Amino acid sequence: MDQMTIRLIIGVLLVIAVLAIAGRRALTLFKLITSGQPTVDRPESRPAALESQATEVLGQKKLLQWTVPGVAHVFAMWGFIVLILTIIETVGAVFISQEFAIPVIGRWPVIGFIEDVFIVLVLVGLAIFAVIRLRTQPAKQGRYSRFFGSHTGAAWLVLFMIFNVIWTLWVSRAAQFNVSEYTLEEGEYIQAFPFHASGGAFATEWLAGFLYPLGLAANEWIETFFLLLNLAIVFGFLVLVLYSKHLHIFLAPINVGAKRQPNALGPLLPMYSGTEKIDFEDPADDATFGRGRIEDFTWKGMLDMATCTECGRCQSQCPAWNTGKPLSPKLMIMDLRDHMFASAPYLLATAGAGQPDEMGERNEEVLAKVGDKVATEVQRPLVGERDFDEHRETDGYDAKGHRSNEGPVIDVDALWSCTTCGACVEQCPVDIEHIDHFVDMRRNQVMIESEFPAELGGLFKNVEQKGNPWGMNASLRNAWIEEVDFEVPVFGMEGEEEIPADVEYLFWVGCAGAYEDRAKATTKAVAELLNEAGVKYMVLGEGETCTGDPVRRAGNEFLFQMQAMQNVEMLNEIKARKIVVTCPHCLNTIGREYPQVGGEYEVVHHTQLLAKLVDDGRLTPVKHVDEKVTYHDPCYLGRHNKIYVPPRELVAGVPGVTLVEMERSAERSFCCGAGGARMWMEETLGTRVNMNRTDEALGTGATTVAVGCPFCNVMISDGVTARQSEGEAGENVQVKDVAVMLLEAVKK
Q1: Phi, psi of 383 (to 5 degrees)
Q2: From residue 522, how far is each of 512, 570, 666, 709, 727 by CA, in Å?
Q3: 424 to each of 92, 256, 558, 692, how far by Cα in Å?
Q4: CA distances from 1 to 4, 6, 190 (A)
Q5: pLDDT of residue 39
Q6: How many other CB atoms are there within 10 angstroms of residue 636's CB atom?
Q7: Are 260 and 44 in contact (CB under 8 A)?
Q8: Cβ proximity of 181 and 147 under 8 Å
């Protein structure tokens, strides 16, 4: 039996085996993911989805935000794209001809060169990955390793398999080169290596030199053996990928293409039941409120779970995780994924077969068929107390990535620790939409289970009855106006029914801006600066009410809809067009969430408007101050709405100011701890988020911490006061809104 026959027989057997195993797994995954609830408008925009494929998948834009691991991943990812050519060459050499070459390009020297370049680069990438994992082992660094909780053993196996793919490919190519060389010398030229005559494959030729002394017969057998071994490893790796976290190799491009555009930051999604937006005035009897079971998630949610790479970038940036709380975005997604896979037989037999559970009742017949282990998994509560778990502070995980399958899937403490800061979504290289899933689970907890932190009961009551989170009387919304020595026009005071045409901006003061002393200072500063610049504006006074941001992020979508529709009806009635706000949460809600209920307005943050007024020469900072200032990026101004430059321009534009950046700034800014309705919840787990950020600000040596958000102002001010009382911060350190700094500089 000649070698080509041996290749053919073994090759056919390998193909049959891989098609049977991989094909079955791929079909199961497809059915499982598509058993989720329908998703509306995905992809939202095909041109945008194609752009995301180009920049994030092919260009590796998000991965390269971390330079060293990003470069290593580029080597590996592009290596496998380029080395698809070598797989084609291997398949051709096994099934078609020993002298197979890809048509047209198959003998171009540049192709051989590029293939060899990426053989080397993939090996370099593997070495970088190995060093990173050795230096950041969870066993050494504990929860401070971004790989804590990840399946590190599986990761090492994947690296080993990639190494096996590359070195067996390299050896087979070297043997092919030698077979070509020997047969050329003997006058019976067999061009077993496509680039033997043309050259270019420098690494292959180098390795071939070590095998050449073995002779023709040995090199022929090495060629056959390693061609088949390489093919077997490639097929084996394919099967391994389909059963491991490296499923992202295939799913990531799909997930990136199906993501929210431009990302899953900023506005939360409306609540849907199936493909219909829920009408809270008359919801359908079978409407699903939030996510109370794994099958309540959409197919995009299930795709997110299956796509997670366990890289831990989100975990490394999460303010909750970094302050000792049980929430890790990575581990939460892993918890949901593992529950989904463990429940797969039931899901496939019910929702996957077009027979979903009715009105939340489990299908007892199917439960009996799937076995006790699956039935127990299916009936686990999605959210609840995991107080039995000795590793509760790390979401139940130990350093080896083990977690008990007993009790609820998601720890209630982890769910309510989220500040919705967006660091996880910003960092995720495969565009998982963490915040959407977390808030959807909160929605179910609040509106269906009536299970939520006790403090939120007061928040909900105050917003519903008083129109603000503090429960203050509406009559006090105008109190700040009495504290200034200039006229503040209030809508309706002159009998207006619509905002006059010559009024450029409606100044939305916000709840904090009207009631909280530190935020009131910002409100008064903005009003005075607008007066100074000659900008015509109006405020609503008692006509304002809470935008609904905190209750929406706390999961009370019903109350948010009430607030939003009330505000939109009022704003549309008075013909509001351009709105300026001092609170990034108001900016995000009015500008990006009110369109969901019919409110379309041009909304700007006060730092944007003030920066424009300075650029236009309508405001001029003249007072010289010799001080060092650091600027804290509010999450809902920066990450969620990409406003980074105007506040910095204003701070740096004050004469004499030296602007120093914190290590975590701009898109990597660390949360103050107040978002996601955490402003109204006690922080009893771990250390305080605001103290972590305050210490970083103080570490810059700045005497002023500039902020652009009333919540951040409160949290950072409290942190500075605490450190001053402990003697760890100078009495001259202060926290100021950017508008207050500008006003002080504008006044002569």
Answers
A1: -130, 140
A2: 10, 25, 22, 9, 28
A3: 44, 15, 26, 18
A4: 8, 7, 19
A5: 92
A6: 30
A7: yes
A8: no
Q: Which amino acid is at 665?
A: S
Angle between the N-to-C axes of helices 557-573 and 454-466, in degrees from 0 to 180, rounded to the nearest 10: 20
CA dist 272 and 292 (Å) reads 14
Average pLDDT over residues 241-267: 93
CB 462 within 8 A of CB 470: yes
pLDDT of residue 270: 95
Find out whether 550 and 677 touch, Cβ atoms under 8 Å: yes
> Rounded CA gap, 535 and 503, in Å?
8
Question: Is the separation of the CB atoms in 552 and 442 below 8 Å?
Answer: no
Q: Which helix (H) or strand (E) holds 457?
A: helix 454-466
Q: Is 162 helix (H, G, I), strand (E, B) or coil?
A: helix
Which residues on neighbouring strands pair with residue 737, listed in sequence order?
707
Distance from CA of residue 421 to its chain's centroid?
10
Length of the chain (residues): 748
Neighbours of 103 (CB within 10 A): 7
Parallel/antiparallel/unpaired status of strands 657-660 and 734-737: unpaired
Band of residue 1 on the pLDDT scale cut at 50, 70, 90: low
* CA dihedral for 414, 415, 420, 424, sign (positive or negative): positive
Q: Which strands sit side by side in the sheet containing 657-660, from one edge to the other?
A: 657-660, 627-631, 704-707, 734-737
Q: Torsions phi, psi of 355, nearest 5?
A: -130, 65
Largest alpha-carbon pair distance within the chain?
Answer: 104
* Residue that has been written with the tokens 């769910």 in this structure: 415
Place of tokens 């919304």: 477
| Short-list 534, 554, 524, CA closest to 676 | 554
DSSP 175-213: HHHHHHHHHHHTT-----STTTTT---HHHHHHHHHHGG
Contact yes or no for 72/125 (Cβ under 8 A): yes
pLDDT one-digit tens code per residue, 352-403: 888 888 877 899 999 999 999 999 999 999 999 999 999 999 999 998 889 9
Q: What are phi and psi of 316, to 5 degrees?
A: -65, -25
| pLDDT, tens digit (0-9, with 9 covering 90-100), for 323-338 | 999 999 999 999 999 9
Strand order of the β-sheet with 537-539 is: 537-539, 505-508, 578-581, 602-605
The C-alpha atoms of residue 460 and residue 462 are separated, in whole angstroms, by: 6
Say if CB 709 and CB 584 are below 8 A apart: yes
Tens of pLDDT, residues 291-345: 999 999 999 999 999 999 999 999 999 999 999 999 999 999 999 999 999 999 9
Give CA–CA dist 84/107, Å, rounded: 15
Alpha-carbon gap, residue 93 to 98, rounded angstroms: 5
Mean predicted lDDT score pLDDT of the chain: 94
CB 698 within 8 A of CB 629: no
Cα(142)–Cα(401) distance, integer angstroms: 11
Handedness of CA 495, 498, 504, 510 (dihedral sign): positive
Q: Which value, in Å, is the radius of gyration of the alpha carbons in the chain?
A: 30
Rounded to the nearest angstrom, the gap between the alpha carbon of residue 95 and the centroid of all alpha carbons in its chain is: 44
Question: Do 201 and 117 form a contact (C-beta atoms < 8 A)?
Answer: no
Number of H-type helices and E-type strands within the chain? 31, 12
Q: List pLDDT tens digits, range 155-198.
A: 999 999 999 999 999 999 999 999 999 999 988 899 999 999 99
For residues 77 and 70, give the distance between their C-alpha atoms in angstroms, rounded to a whole number.
10
Amino acid at 36: G
Q: What's the pTM value of the predicted model, to 2 decimals?
A: 0.94
